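Justification of computing resources. Each target in the renewal requires a structure prediction run like the one illustrated here; the chain below, 83 residues long, is used simply to show the kind of job we budget for.
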Amino acid sequence: MTDRTEAEAIRRVMTQSINAVEGSREFLEAKHGQVWDTSELQQEFEVLGFCSPCCVVRNRSNSQRGTVFFQHNPRFYFGFEPE
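Resulting structure tokens:
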């Protein structure tokens, strides 16, 4: 397998895993801490890029870059990890 093929396989498994569990806001907050819906994320972060299940973001208040995970339905973002 090439690096690109391996990365794509890992990405697909992570996406399936995230979307296979209960996805209520309350569940995600208990598991990951702060959770954002789309409008909340856009207020706090600038989205620089994404490849499911991750987004690269920049915090609007302090310019810190990092990543967040997201689930598809309902769409919530969680697990901010600074670079």
